[in-house]
């Protein structure tokens, strides 16, 4: 199928074939995407493995006449994202790459505009992405909605306040990893607005490291005293002990559904004889780890840096999908040249279990653009801060404060899954 967008023909591909033999178009698309991202040279095996992770997803490509390899790529799929009090369907967008010889001619714009238009037609309320660069996506209506911090733990200085260990640890082998981890991640993600669900294929990439990281990975699960699994951690060796006498471990994923599982997974990471440092590049901005230790200086943080970018495609559906801690009725005017979020919208939260949102002729209390609305949606940024920068116009007195109270999330938005 071809669709003209900005003068370019955007072709849509449905990945097919099996893990052993992806179809030719998908294989060519994967090689073009890898080149745009300066990735490792694809091998037949790595192409087949990647193709298997794309089953059921949408690929887009732009092709020069007579060329079988695309000059631009985009991949997207239907995801679920946690929001305060529930979840919302999201168009997850990734792999936007343009051939080095074809940049700055509108190709990113062509593939992304086409993808967002299809998601909007399908009724998907929001689009979400994580980005390689910070200045690309605001022009397309995306705003930063979650942040992350990198942490570094000196495990030899880490003394836990609570005695332990408690519960039971067990090694999760690659064959059984997805079955053990998926239900835990699904429970854990509901505690954090902005957390995305995982595709079935993503577990293979997580436990194997995918095409970018061939070093061994280890997965450990934790169960409580009743035997109920409550969390897991996946880590690898970032620096071997043989060079410095003390290895550095990198956490690739840590999902805890209870405070006890969180504490015991960190205790496990601190118990490995040959390691002196544990790093985690995608920790939450309010990571509780220092509060577990007698000396909080054992943990150092960098950041925050931006993680998840959101773009509302259907404002009433997105606003009605989340819950609000106070009852109010507030009118937002949204400027959006692309049209998806444009309008004046009344948000009525007087019914706490069924907030209503829809178009209105009433005077607006606040006004902003679509990207700012994307940043506000999960409650990760205070509207009063945005009002101080001119990103939000406060049109009735005190409206930014009312909006802050309305949008306040039950916990800090966090998405630990870069995609
Ligand atoms: C969700 C993700 O997949 S994030 C991954 C992004 N991809 C990469 O980092 C891979 C390497 N880079 C690339 O492949 C390309 O340079 C891309 C995808 C970043 C940009 O593709 P291009 O086709 O050159 O972008 P395009 O010409 O459509 O530009 C669209 C707009 O973005 C702007 N833009 C493009 N690249 C950049 C940049 N690196 N920094 C700031 N602005 C940029 C353009 O100026 C243009 O702005 P305007 O329309 O407001 O005038």
Secondary structure blueprint with pairings:
Blueprint lengths: L1 E4 L2 E6 L10 H13 L7 H9 L5 E5 L9 E12 L2 E13 L8 H15 L4 E4 L13 E2 L2 E8 L13 E4 L2 H16 L12 H7 L8 E7 L5 E11 L1 H4 L2 E10 L2 H11 L5 E9 L15 E8 L2 E4 L2 H7 L7 E7 L7 E6 L7 E4 L6 E4 H7 L6 H6 L3 E3 L4 H9 L12
Parallel strand pairs: 5-6, 12-13, 16-19
Antiparallel strand pairs: 1-2, 2-3, 3-4, 4-5, 6-15, 7-15, 8-13, 8-14, 9-10, 10-11, 11-12, 16-17, 17-18, 19-20
The structure holds acetyl coenzyme *A.
The site of acetyl coenzyme *A has 22 residues, from strand 5 and helix 3.
What does this structure look like?
Residues 1-22 are annotated as: Disordered. Belongs to the acetyltransferase Eis family. Acetyl-CoA binds at residues 96-98, 104-109. This protein has 419 residues and is of the alpha+beta class. An 8-stranded mixed sheet has the order 1-2-3-4-5-6-15-7, with helices on both faces. A 7-stranded mixed sheet has the order 9-10-11-12-13-8-14, with helices on both faces. Helix 4 (174-189) packs across helix 5. A hairpin with a 7-residue loop joins strand 17 (343-348) and strand 18 (356-359). The protein has helices at 24-36, 44-52, 107-121, 174-189, 202-208, 241-244, 259-269, 315-321, 370-376, 383-388, 399-407; strands spanning 2-5, 8-13, 58-62, 72-83, 86-98, 126-129, 143-144, 147-154, 168-171, 217-223, 229-239, 247-256, 275-283, 299-306, 309-312, 329-335, 343-348, 356-359, 366-369, 392-394. The chain has 11 helices and 20 strands. It starts with a strand and ends in a 12-residue tail after the last helix. The chain has 3 domains: 2-124, 3-Layer(aba) Sandwich (Aminopeptidase); 148-306, Aminopeptidase (3-Layer(aba) Sandwich), CATH 3.40.630.30; 315-407, Nonspecific Lipid-transfer Protein, Chain A, CATH 3.30.1050. The protein binds acetyl coenzyme *A (ACO).
């Amino acid at each position: 199928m071809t669709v003209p967008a900005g003068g370019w023909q955007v072709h849509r591909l449905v990945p097919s074939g099996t893990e052993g033999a992806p179809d030719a178009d998908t294989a060519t698309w994967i090689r073009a995407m890898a080149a745009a991202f300066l990735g490792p040279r694809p091998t037949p095996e790595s192409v087949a493995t990647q193709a298997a992770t794309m089953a059921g997803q949408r690929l887009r490509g732009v092709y020069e006449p007579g060329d079988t390899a695309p000059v631009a790529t985009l991949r997207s799929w239907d995801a679920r994202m946690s929001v305060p009090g529930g979840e919302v369907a999201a168009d997850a967008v990734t792999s936007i790459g343009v051939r080095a010889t074809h940049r700055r001619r509108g190709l990113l714009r062509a593939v992304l505009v086409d993808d967002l238009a299809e998601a909007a037609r399908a009724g998907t309320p929001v689009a979400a992405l994580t980005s390689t660069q910070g200045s690309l996506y605001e022009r397309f209506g995306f705003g930063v909605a979650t942040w992350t911090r990198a942490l570094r733990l000196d495990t030899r200085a880490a003394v836990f306040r609570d005695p332990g260990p408690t519960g039971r640890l067990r090694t999760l082998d690659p064959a059984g990893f997805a079955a053990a981890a998926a239900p835990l991640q699904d429970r854990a993600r509901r505690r954090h607005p902005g957390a995305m669900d995982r595709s079935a294929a993503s577990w293979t990439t997580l436990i194997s490291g995918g095409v970018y990281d061939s070093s061994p990975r280890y997965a450990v699960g934790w169960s409580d005293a009743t035997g109920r699994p409550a969390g897991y951690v996946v880590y690898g060796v970032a620096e071997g002990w043989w060079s410095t006498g003390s290895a550095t471990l990198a956490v690739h994923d840590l999902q805890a559904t209870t405070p006890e599982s969180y504490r015991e997974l960190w205790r496990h990471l601190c118990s490995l004889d040959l390691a002196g440092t544990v790093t985690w590049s995608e920790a939450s901005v309010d990571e509780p780890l220092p509060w577990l230790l007698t000396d909080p200086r054992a943990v150092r943080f960098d950041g925050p840096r931006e993680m998840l970018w959101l773009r509302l495609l259907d404002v009433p559906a997105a606003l009605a999908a989340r819950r609000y801690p106070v009852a109010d009725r507030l009118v937002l005017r949204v400027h959006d040249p692309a049209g998806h979020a444009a309008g004046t919208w009344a948000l009525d939260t007087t019914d706490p279990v069924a907030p209503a949102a829809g178009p209105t002729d009433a005077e607006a209390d606040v006004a902003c653009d679509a990207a700012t609305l994307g940043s506000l949606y999960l409650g990760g940024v205070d509207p009063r801060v945005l009002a101080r920068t001119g990103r939000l116009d406060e049109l009735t007195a005190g409206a930014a404060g009312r909006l802050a109270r309305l949008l306040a999330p039950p916990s800090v938005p966090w998405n630990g899954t870069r995609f």
